[in-house]
Input
Amino acid sequence: MTTMDNIQPTISVVNSPASSSETSTALTELALALAAKPSEGFFDELISRLALQVGACEGYIAHFDSRTPSLPCIRYWREGQFIGGKLSPASANLLAEIRARRVVNIDNLQQAYPDYASTQPEIQQPLQGFWAQQIVQQQRVIGYIAFSFSQAKFDHALLEQLLAPFFERLSSEFEVQQQREALSLSAIAFESNEGLIITDVNYRIVKVNKAFSQITGYQQHEVLGQELTEVLGNPSPVFIEEVDGTVRRKGEVERQRKNGQRYTQQETITAVHNDLDSLTHYVVCLQDISANKATEQQIQHLAYFDELTGLPNRRKLREELSLCFSRAKKQHAIGALLFIDLDHFKNINDSLGHAAGDWVLQQVAKRLQELIREGDVLARLGGDEFVLLLADLGESPPHAEQQANIVGKRLIQTISSPYPFDGQSLHIGASVGITLFPGKGQTAEDLLKQADTAMYQAKSAGRRTVIFFDDGMQKQADKRLKLHNALRGALANDELLLYYQPQHMVSTGELVGAEALVRWQPEGKGLVSPTEFIPIAEESDLIIDIGMWVLEQSCKHMAHWQQKGLLLPELSVNVSAKQFHHPEFVDRVEELMTRYSIDGAMLNLEITESVVLGHAEDTIRKMEQLKEMGLRFSIDDFGAGYSSLSYLKRLPVDELKIDRSFIRDIPRDSRDMAIVDAVLAMANHLGFTVTAEGVETRQQLAFLKQQGCTFYQGYLSSKAITAKALERYIQRFQSKFG
Output
């Protein structure tokens, strides 16, 4: 039997929860909701939103009194609704734990505190998780906010991070709530934490309390007999009669303490009448709300400005964009929206860490702020994306385009200057997409999408360039989006096919292998070219799933051919950069080889030089692990990308594949022949074999044979064929070469 003596609650205190883009979004939404809530609705909004965000079953705020555990909650929320008059579910033992720790986090609530919720038998489902944080005033625990969960594991770090920016206001509102309760319990309540002034009918002060002296710095003997205006510094208030018949004035006012310090004060001035309904006194209630105002300002800033750079965020930009667009239409002026995306920023994050990346983003923001005019808006959308809104570029479209182009190029030049960091120079660039407004049929909502589309074109055009949006780009973007959405279902719907292109020995024509090539045939449609869907897959993580499907199907076919006695010496499979750098890639390859009994020497992985960029050490380490399993490596499309001989000599590769663009014009183009000759000579010295791609004529094959090329593939021998067709192809060459 388990007893309380041998059960210890699992408790942890989280001081610095990790941040993420989801947390930032949740914080912004919470900040916007709370900013619009007065004191009366603050607790309800805070509890319900936090509970829904972290999946809590119940949430509540309660007073802390160890002598009387079951006090009514100030506000109690359970499963989507607030319930009045509920007693706190926390037992005396749990309250002792809350008193001892600032934050309590429990993942075995039923075992540790079986008497939890004993005051609420209507709770049917067992509660496993519990989280609470103290509300402290003058080093004394006066209350707590708590949430319970049906599951043991919950995101307590997210909960603490969401609550942290608003805890000062929570404490302040809790204090206000206490004051309200105290006033309702006592008719006098004069010595409350709110400053109180009593005046006669002529506004001469007859009494103040201690809180008044603490707030203003004036002692009672300094103000007795003075008119209210002499102390508060504004004319006698103009009263209004409220629905309840009480005559009062309430408002927020800027005041000055005795020491000259300015602060914000909430004042309520109430007229007091005797039994004969004659005016006898005025009661002035003062509350220093400086802390609340500072918190509200912080919330407003969080809702509309980027925390890292201090620039306007996406929400603020949309507001400014809408106003600017409307103004431009009315005034017949032309504006421009520039979408700025940093080039190669990810390399800095990956190699130096996020702290260095954040520093670079801050430096970029500072540089760009120095370029903009008064009235322009520079915003950060998130990640490495910035937007510049140029409000007024005149009335001439050609002139506006010229001005925007000049600004765009200046932005690229400014961003591309080196960034001195920790003894080294960091280098990035920028691609800029621009759309002008207002245009025919254009709306403010279109602008960001159009500028983003143009920026994507700038990336595709080689980066570090400026591209203006046109309607053709939008059609192309819509087509890409349609393809992307359709491609997501290709694997699930068995729409992907695997074709193979045979590879031969140049000198003898002997069959030495084949390259696996993926094809996509949507249901009821023809084949989609790989040049259309592979780049789209590479933009997202789809390329990882597609790549692993190709690798598994290749191993499956190899195993089938072996069982039928068909010998294919080697099968080449293309591996994308994203797939190669996936944390589980090596393990997945090893798993497939084991499952299908594939000898490592029969697999050749083709990688491009982009795999190495920014990940040199990780690439080499993974290649060596796979080499130990017997696999071979080829550098695909050699010479067509960012060729780096320094990487090439370090990489444990076995083969270079000459891109078809260098083979296509042989023997007509002497320069292509010279390049191929140079690659073959270099490969020979480094000990690499070479496969030439795209060989279509006997003249090309003769040239490759003369220069000592090892292998070739292309239409001269065979186009890419199905797995069934390759079986027959292997059989034919087996009988020919024995």
In short: The first helix runs from residue 21 to 35.
